[in-house]
TrEMBL record:
<dbReference type="Pfam" id="PF07748">
    <property type="entry name" value="Glyco_hydro_38C"/>
</dbReference>
<dbReference type="InterPro" id="IPR028995">
    <property type="entry name" value="Glyco_hydro_57/38_cen_sf"/>
</dbReference>
<dbReference type="InterPro" id="IPR000602">
    <property type="entry name" value="Glyco_hydro_38_N"/>
</dbReference>
<dbReference type="InterPro" id="IPR015341">
    <property type="entry name" value="Glyco_hydro_38_cen"/>
</dbReference>
<dbReference type="InterPro" id="IPR013780">
    <property type="entry name" value="Glyco_hydro_b"/>
</dbReference>
<dbReference type="Pfam" id="PF01074">
    <property type="entry name" value="Glyco_hydro_38N"/>
</dbReference>
<dbReference type="GO" id="GO:0046872">
    <property type="term" value="F:metal ion binding"/>
</dbReference>
<dbReference type="InterPro" id="IPR050843">
    <property type="entry name" value="Glycosyl_Hydrlase_38"/>
</dbReference>
<protein>
    <recommendedName>
        <fullName>Alpha-mannosidase</fullName>
        <ecNumber>3.2.1.-</ecNumber>
    </recommendedName>
</protein>
<dbReference type="InterPro" id="IPR011013">
    <property type="entry name" value="Gal_mutarotase_sf_dom"/>
</dbReference>
<dbReference type="InterPro" id="IPR037094">
    <property type="entry name" value="Glyco_hydro_38_cen_sf"/>
</dbReference>
<dbReference type="GO" id="GO:0030246">
    <property type="term" value="F:carbohydrate binding"/>
</dbReference>
<keyword id="KW-0862">Zinc</keyword>
<dbReference type="GO" id="GO:0006013">
    <property type="term" value="P:mannose metabolic process"/>
</dbReference>
<keyword id="KW-0479">Metal-binding</keyword>
<comment type="function">
    <text>Catalyzes the first committed step in the biosynthesis of complex N-glycans. It controls conversion of high mannose to complex N-glycans; the final hydrolytic step in the N-glycan maturation pathway.</text>
</comment>
<dbReference type="GO" id="GO:0000139">
    <property type="term" value="C:Golgi membrane"/>
</dbReference>
Length: 915
């Protein structure tokens, strides 16, 4: 490129650039910076990887974007100005929104429904303005170009005829083939003919797009890896360009960057007074030109999807706790934390890739991802230890709920209670909350002592989520009121205590096989089928006495206004002969009901909560309600352990049939946890895969009077059927290749399933009727209610539990104020270039305020709460920036002088400096 100044090239994923960059000498680095400065080399997106948009959660996407953009800004002194996202299998509005918050206002996408592409071409909307539903001032729209044909390769880059374009892919002179005429080197004898054909192809493209400014991307997977191709493409194309520019009166053509394309496009729009089409919404599901629906990957390999969420939670907790400990840490310790968390964060960012979190890589690659995630969890564990040591001057703490090996779920440590134990609990949320704390203990005769003396607790049989079996161990359960971003500690001692109650085992069955697996300390009581339900003061859960599955949920049971929602559950599976890691192609539209006749079912009942167990061959389910005040009163929890390793060519689902009003129901799934997108149920022509949508964190079913929110800590695919019933895909085991790139061999087939634990929370709320039916039908997006929002935060960000021998004398005390309950503290993350500064990122969720439920969370005004936090952290100055922490919005000033405000659905990012 140095010798060919007319040449242009773009680079997207920074993870690969970083690997190359670290091996280069200063001469090469200087040349690279010069090529960028000359606008020959363009850095696009700037994110660590090109993220998937169906299964990712927005805080992890933000980390991915920041990690890459910070790196290229520090190393190359450049900021990306265009988003390039050619390969994800469908697109949502949230990722473009996040890029606009970093200053990137232009983008290129590709894989959208092929019928919609034809529609956009027909209406001259190949470049369009992508707007957010909630953005009334259009401040965060992205000017978006969608690649107009079926793929991003050269065959689909010069016009509507791939056979013509193939003749201009000059690598095919001696590599690969074309179906018709093969490419030939350009010579004096053939240049006129070859130039006229190429120009004609571009003219067809121009007519189809309704634009005389065209973008043609010239590359493909695994291209430009050898110097030979650089010469083949450049030397032949430049001859054609020069000939066309000299001899054509209607066409000018040259190499360019994406920025140059958008600049030319906007100049042309201004001159000709062209107003681009506007679009809002998303592009799911994706159907390619072959007719396949790419909806399987929403669910493929859920173990790894769950593992990613765990790593995100651990890194975030490490960010927050190391920030709290920073004023007590030496320069060397700060450097270690910065270096180690950078490694962990980059592995998390790597897994956001559209062939990683999607589960669409070969088996050995998925194993490598998993090992990286596990190693990063261990890094985060060590950072938590360093933080506790700095805060408490003690390194005697063990961390609970950490996986022991890379291919198993997190497990609970056995707490031996022969000697007193201190349980230290850290609330990683910026607002107070009530949580039930669970510990595996060796002896049921224990007392739990809080700040003001003994507290109520219950003893349950311990269900090992790793093995999927009941054990002779015990589960200690007690409630904890957790203050914002603070610690609370309890002492556990061996003692007979009236405050600790051993739960009863209730069963409608005459005999229980499970009794031989649990301790004889538990009393088993046979009850009638009419008594087989879960109940607290506010909620009653009706169960099927034959298998323990959900039948109905009653709310407001303490009043005369009790409401019933039928929610009949079943487990089923689809047989599949053509599905693969990417696509869903079912053998039959009808599901096969999973036999649950052999399932063992019983209730564990105590004063703090009740749990209904259903233990079957493939599914282990626990439904629970917590008898604690506050937001928990209206929640039903469902924990599943799924193990389908003995199934074949099966796609496992759980279904819920409701009795909502069919003509009045609305259905939403979330977009990366930022907003809810309204979905439609289409006549699927016996193809359920057509109606599957991504559910990264939530799905909503709502009629005019009530809303059912289903929140999840694992991404899934979901659909409705008959409008009022919902179906969630849980796992898939497939022995066929779908032809999308993995290959039909042992390493390419997604048969490497692992047992996976996943959790859901059901929130049922009565809603006000604010709109008429027509207005509701026209509504295209929504937000979670505050209860659903907090339930999701509780699912994803469990309290961090630390266990130590002996009695803790000095617990770290923080007198912090709760943030407003709709404000999410994404992170206080280290910066790779400055150990004394960090990036604090806040997001204020959009909240649906039409619920009739009373207030469930009490926060303070943001400005005072944030200043109190900064004071406790030892912050000296603060500076507001764009989301990526690069472009400054305000001057650096003492934090006391800053006024902190944040609007709904918006972000606030601050560079904070420590002592």
């Amino acid at each position: 490129m140095q010798n060919h100044p007319r040449m242009r090239f773009m680079w997207c994923e920074i993870v690969f650039l970083e690997r190359w960059w670290t091996k280069q000498n200063e001469s090469v680095k200087s040349l690279t910076r010069k090529l960028i400065e000359n606008k020959q080399l363009e850095i696009v997106s700037g994110s660590w990887v090109m993220t998937d948009e169906a299964t990712t959660y927005f805080p992890s996407i933000v980390d991915n974007i920041i990690e890459g953009q910070q790196y290229v800004n520090n190393e190359l002194n450049v900021q990306a100005e265009v988003m390039w996202s050619n390969d994800p299998f469908g697109y949502g509005p949230s990722v473009p929104y996040l890029y606009t918050k970093t200053g990137v206002k232009r983008g290129v996408i590709n894989r959208i429904h092929h019928g919609l592409k034809a529609f956009l071409r027909y209406h001259g909307a190949i470049p369009f303005r992508w707007q957010q539903f909630f953005d009334v001032n259009d401040e965060n729209e992205m000017y978006t170009h969608v690649l107009p044909y079926s793929h991003y390769d050269i065959l689909n880059s010069c016009g509507p005829d791939p056979d013509v374009c193939c003749q201009y892919d000059f690598k095919r002179i001696n590599h690969f083939t074309c179906s018709n005429a093969a490419p030939v080197p350009i010579t004096d004898s053939n240049i006129r003919k070859r130039a006229l054909i190429l120009e004609k192809a571009f003219l067809k493209m121009s007519l189809q797009q309704g634009s005389n400014i065209l973008l043609s991307v010239w590359g493909d997977d695994f291209r430009y890896a050898e110097l030979e191709e650089w010469y083949q493409q450049y030397d032949n194309l430049i001859l054609l360009f020069d000939y066309i520019n000299k001899n054509s009166k209607r066409t000018k053509i040259r190499f360019g960057t994406l920025m140059e394309y958008f600049d030319a496009l906007e100049r042309n729009n201004k001159i000709k007074n062209i107003i681009p089409a506007t679009l809002s919404g998303d592009f799911f599901p994706y159907q390619c030109s072959a007719g396949d629906y790419w909806t399987g990957y929403y669910t493929t390999r859920p173990f790894y999807k769950r593992q990613e969420r765990e790593l995100h939670s651990f890194i975030r907790a490490s960010d927050l706790l190391t920030a709290s400990a920073l004023i007590n840490l030496s320069t060397k310790s700060r450097q270690i934390i910065q270096q180690q968390l950078t490694i962990a964060r980059r592995n998390l960012a790597l897994f956001q890739h559209h062939d990683a979190i999607t589960g669409t890589s070969k088996n050995h690659v998925m194993k490598d991802y998993s090992e990286r995630i596990f190693a990063s969890i261990k890094i985060a564990e060590n950072m938590l230890r360093i933080s506790l040591n700095a805060l408490l001057r003690s390194n005697n703490f063990e961390i609970d709920n950490i996986p022991l090996v890379y291919n198993e779920s997190s497990s609970k440590k056995m707490v031996i209670v022969e000697q007193p134990k201190t349980i230290l609990i850290y609330n990683n949320q910026p607002h107070g909350r009530m949580e039930l704390i669970e510990l595996q203990i060796s002896d049921p005769n224990v007392i739990v002592i809080g700040t003001n003396g003994p507290i109520q607790a219950q003893i349950e049989p311990y269900f090992d989520t790793v093995s999927g079996k009941l054990t002779k161990s015990y589960l200690l359960v007690f409630s904890a009121h957790l203050k914002a971003l603070s610690f609370v500690h309890f002492t556990i001692q061996k003692n007979h205590a009236a405050t600790t109650e051993i739960t009863q085992i209730l069963t409608p069955l005459k005999s229980l096989r499970m009794t031989k697996y649990i301790s004889s300390n538990f009393h088993v009581k046979t009850i009638s089928k009419n008594e087989f339900f879960l109940q607290t003061q506010r909620i009653l859960v009706e169960l099927n006495p034959k298998n323990g599955l959900l039948e109905a949920i009653y709310t407001n049971v303490e009043t005369d206004g009790t409401k019933r929602l039928r929610c009949k559950q079943e487990f089923s599976y689809y047989k599949s002969i053509f599905s693969g890691a990417y696509i869903m192609a079912l053998q039959d539209a009808e599901v096969i009901k999973l036999k649950m006749t052999e399932a063992e079912t019983f209730i564990v009942s105590g004063p703090l909560r009740q749990i209904a167990y259903t233990l079957s061959r493939f599914v282990k389910q626990r439904l629970s309600v917590n008898n604690i005040s506050g937001a928990e009163e209206n929640r039903l929890h469902m924990q599943l352990r799924i193990d389908i390793r003995k199934m074949s060519d099966a796609e496992l689902v759980t279904k819920f049939a409701t009795d909502m009003i069919a003509d009045d129901v609305e259905y939403y799934t979330d977009s990366n946890g930022l907003q809810l997108i309204k979905r439609a149920e289409y006549d699927a022509s016996n193809r359920p895969e057509m109606n599957y949508y991504p559910m990264p964190t939530a799905m909503i079913l709502q009629d005019r009077s009530k809303r059912l929110s289903v929140l999840s800590n694992v991404p899934h695919g979901v659909r409705t059927f008959n409008k009022i019933n919902l179906e969630i895909m849980l796992d898939r085991r497939l022995s066929t290749d779908d032809g999308k790139g993995l290959g039909f061999n042992d390493d390419g087939l997604p048969v490497d399933n692992l047992p996976v634990n996943m959790a859901f929370t059901f929130v049922i709320e009565q809603m006000t009727v604010a709109d008429n039916k027509q207005q509701r039908q026209q509504r295209r997006f929504a937000y979670n209610t505050l209860n659903a929002h907090l339930a999701l935060q509780s699912l994803i960000y469990q309290p961090n539990i630390f266990i130590s021998s002996g009695i803790l004398e000095n617990s770290p005390l923080y007198h912090l104020q709760s943030f407003p309950c709709d404000v999410q503290l994404l992170t206080i993350r280290p910066l790779t270039y400055d150990i004394n500064r960090r990036l604090m990122i806040l997001h204020r969720a959009g909240i649906d305020c039409t619920t009739l439920n009373s207030s469930i969370c009490h926060g303070n005004e943001l400005d005072s709460a944030l200043k109190k936090l900064m004071q406790s952290l030892g912050v000296t100055t603060v500076q507001k920036t764009l989301l990526n922490g690069i472009k400054q919005i305000s001057e650096e000033m003492p934090y006391q002088m800053m006024t902190f405000t944040l609007e709904p659905a918006d972000f606030a990012t601050y560079l904070i400096r420590f002592n």
